[in-house]
Design a protein that fits this description.
Blueprint: H1 7-12, E1 25-29, H2 36-51, E2 60-64, H3 70-77, E3 83-86, H4 104-109, E4 114-117, H5 120-125, H6 130-142, E5 146-151, H7 155-159, H8 163-178, E6 187-191, H9 205-222, E7 231-234, H10 239-246, E8 253-256, H11 263-272
Parallel strand pairs: 1-2, 1-8, 2-3, 3-4, 4-5, 5-6, 6-7, 7-8
Helix pairs in contact: 2-3, 2-11, 6-8, 8-9, 10-11
Bound molecules: phosphoenolpyruvate.
Phosphoenolpyruvate binds at residues 29, 31, 192, 197-198, 234-237, 255-259.
């Protein structure tokens, strides 16, 4: 399977150049979108767009479609370098009596390599606690899936001057719960200020860079080799603001929601984070 890259493939690709050995990623979270026919068209457009992309090798790419569409999207992206993820994973392992749940083993079996954990929509809409997120992270990593851990403060937390404290609490809770049983190449952190998600109001490059530098310090302080963990920015990333965000030294890529539903926009953002 051509999109089954390893950490060392990535380390050898040009997607780490200039970023101190950190892999640059642009990832698309399709959320609860779109209907099956449009999802197929979107995956087709991404595969076609990438096959025409000759001028400049792109950074690493991944998309997170609706779980129900994983198998079909995997078939379309099979020959492309785009990796595939799911937006959630069960804490229940393997197969068994867990009605409605999707275990990491089932997701892997459908072709997923990645899973999102801690997205703010799941924290707020499903009330996911740090303890539940730890169980999900462990289930994913121990089953061989890679994980994107999302962290970020709300507007009221930022206005109260607590943005760094909130992000530190979220990140540290998971680093401690994982108890060092993970490989730095298999975890990506996404800083997503809640007030910037789906609002059209991105964090300024200065504010995003400051938080990314802070996250990087926390990672490195926790375990020296975590300095190679990629830290992505998420929150209203579009083709027209991607260039400035990409120029920040501690921003290694983007987790993109709305703009990932248009192949041309997603690929334009990928180009901004490449080369
Ligand atoms: C997201 O859902 O992770 C996200 C960043 O969404 P948007 O790009 O639409 O703000």
């Amino acid at each position: 399977m051509s999109n089954n890259h390893t950490g060392s493939d990535r380390a050898n690709s040009n997607s780490t150049d200039g970023h101190h050995g950190r892999t640059r990623w642009v990832m698309g979270n399709w959320k609860m979108n779109p209907l099956r026919k449009e999802a197929i068209q979107l995956a087709d457009a991404l595969a076609t767009g990438l096959s025409k992309q000759t001028a400049q090798p792109l950074c690493q790419l991944a998309v997170f479609p609706v779980a129900l569409h994983t198998l079909e999207i995997e078939t379309i992206l099979h020959e492309s370098p785009i990796e595939l993820g799911c937006q959630d994973v069960s804490v229940h392992r393997g197969l068994g009596a867990s009605t409605g749940e999707l275990s990491a083993e089932l997701l892997k079996d459908a072709g997923a390599q990645w899973v999102l954990v801690g997205h703010s929509e799941r924290r707020s809409q499903q009330g996911e606690s740090e303890a539940l997120l730890s169980a999900k992270l462990k289930a994913a990593l121990e089953s061989g899936l890679n994980a994107v851990l999302c962290v970020g403060e709300t507007l009221s937390e930022r206005e109260a001057g607590r943005a760094e404290a909130v992000v530190a609490e979220q990140l540290t809770a998971q680093l401690v719960a994982l108890a060092d049983r993970f490989d730095a190449q298999r975890v990506v952190v996404a800083y997503e200020p809640v007030w910037a998600i789906g609002t059209g109001k991105s964090a300024s490059p200065e504010d995003a860079q400051a938080m990314h530098a802070f996250i990087r310090q926390l990672l490195e302080k926790h375990r020296a080799d975590l300095k190679t963990v990629s830290v992505l920015y998420g929150g209203s990333v579009k083709p027209d603001n991607a260039g400035l965000l990409a120029s920040c030294p501690d921003i290694d890529g983007a987790l993109v929601g709305g703009a990932s539903l248009k192949a041309a926009d997603f690929l334009a953002i990928a180009r901004a984070f490449s080369g």
